[in-house]
Amino acid sequence: MERTFKSLEHQGWNERAAAYDSYTAKFTDYGIAPLIDAIRLSAGMSVLDVCCGTGRVSQAAANKHASVIGIDISAEMIALAKAQVLNCAFEVADAESLPFSNGVFDRVICNFGLYHLPNPDQAIKDAARVLKRGGLYAFTTWCGPDKSPLFRILPEAIKDHGQLDVGLPPAPPAFRLADQNEARRDMTSVGFESIAFLDVPAVFECPENQIIDFLAKSTVRMTMVLQAQAPAARDAIHLAIRDRLSVFAVGNVIRIPMPAILVSGVKS
After folding, report:
1. Alpha helices of 190-268 — where are they, by DSSP H?
2. Which long-range contacts (CB under 8 A, 24 or more apart) does 247-253 make?
3. pLDDT number for residue 1
4. What is the total count of domains within the chain?
5. N or C, where is the chain less crowded by C-beta within 10 Å?
6. 137's torsion region: left (phi>0), alpha (psi -120 to 50) or beta?
7. pLDDT tens for each residue of 145-199
């Protein structure tokens, strides 16, 4: 199989599925309550949870007595979601090519999933396609290094002591949709109106002595970049990351702001 951004993300999340709830979910969970509030659920509504992972957002929607389907490209994630016997349906599917008819869902949500797609514009377009007229779509996405210290510190440490270009397939601009102008343009271009934005004040929290292990198990592409460094460079990078994150320590726990935004719109 050709190595692409998509294939590596797919492989990476399959490998991290078992650890997802203990690692990545520690910060992606910040998006759950805002998403559920933003889509104004009523009992009996049909909801599609795109990039559902282990089903945490899906279950939150089901708790509001909605009829929920969660989809994820990772078969391992879907297997874990199903194993929990949650009050939802789950299936393996591609966010950029949803296997549903036009206009069948009242709501579509995506919690930090677009960040991991090669073509998030297509995922937004397909979300609009499967929504009913008047239906709501909402997604969360991370803010970039201009607002998020973590996303600044990691590449800076790598650049200072190793190399960022390690031969990985090119990636789309990671934080483009955190720009309100870009997000509004994408949303309106596929028929959404009443576009709204909400700050999501997430926090990356981890014991100081576990930070490198946490990063390795909660990310995909950054982990691959770190693993590709020469051993001496990798050790220096790890030391630099620990040192730069230490200013965010409260006791022996790193608590670093990891701001995100929620974008929502109504299908016209």
Report:
1. 211-218, 221-227, 231-245
2. 248/149, 249/208, 252/207, 252/208, 252/209, 253/205, 253/206, 253/207, 253/208
3. 60
4. 1
5. N
6. beta
7. 999 999 999 999 999 999 999 999 999 999 999 999 999 999 999 999 999 999 9
Of the chain, the end-to-end C-alpha distance in Å amounts to 40
Q: Which residue's structure tokens are 């608590």? A: 255
* Burial label, 22 (beta-carbon count in 10 A; 0-12, 13-18, 19+): exposed
d(CA 119, CA 95): 9
Domain that holds residue 31: 5-267
pLDDT at 85 over 80: no
pTM of the model: 0.96
The per-residue pLDDT for range 205-256, each reduced to its tens digit, is: 999 999 999 999 999 999 999 999 999 999 999 999 999 999 999 999 999 9
Helix (H, G, I), strand (E, B) or coil at 71: strand
pLDDT averaged over every residue in the chain: 96
Q: What is the strand order of the sheet 249-250 is part of? A: 203-207, 253-257, 249-250
